[in-house]
């Protein structure tokens, strides 16, 4: 029997934890709980959950700081931020500091369960099948180990979040093909719809450029085709 996936709930409001636990368990997940940021961080690092639902306003340490600390430890577990407000700044900040997704309170339980499933499936998905070996040499100085899900720049490992990795590997195995934000939301985020969520693509591209490009303002790998979308360029890499 397949082992249950574990969701860590970091939330200080007990009634929200109760309803999340109930619905997640009914959907076949195991759950862990933390009622403050510090406890959430230590459980995230010690208990190896498959996904974290992370409230922003928490005692002892806020959700953004928790998320940032998780990433600093090199942990790439999918994180869904639970924001209390509809504010764009909260959403974007969450993605900037390495969260994979966000959902606004009050949320529909169906939507939340769907997002949990999508984020866990994406992480579990095997690398694109088109590749023969596990090491995809993208360019002279950039390579992707699809077994270890690790990216190397000039031979040095680059720390990417799950989403950043998925986006890069998706674009890299389809070099020079332009994908719109909506395409990427569907292919990489596994969402069958887009709204202002497409902003998440821009934020993830920017973060990825900061990590893999020599000059993020003048990228050579992940390029923008104005009005169309993004593509992974192998042509420019060869020229430089
Ligand atoms: Ca709270």
Task: Walk me through what this model shows.
- The protein is an alpha/beta fold and 240 residues long.
- It has two domains: 6-124, 3-Layer(aba) Sandwich (Rossmann fold), CATH 3.40.50.2300; 135-232, Winged helix-like DNA-binding domain superfamily/Winged helix DNA-binding domain (Arc Repressor Mutant, subunit A), CATH 1.10.10.
- It is 40% helix and 19% strand.
- It has nine helices and eleven strands.
- The strands form three sheets. A five-stranded parallel sheet has the order 2-1-3-4-5, sandwiched between helices.
- β1, α1 (14-26) and β2 (30-34) form a beta-alpha-beta unit.
- α2 runs parallel beside α3 (63-72) and α6 crosses α8.
- It is globular, with a radius of gyration of 18 Å.
- The N and C termini lie far apart (51 Å).
- Residues 126-133 and 236-240 have low confidence and may be disordered.
- Calcium ion is lined by residues 12-13, 55, 57-58.
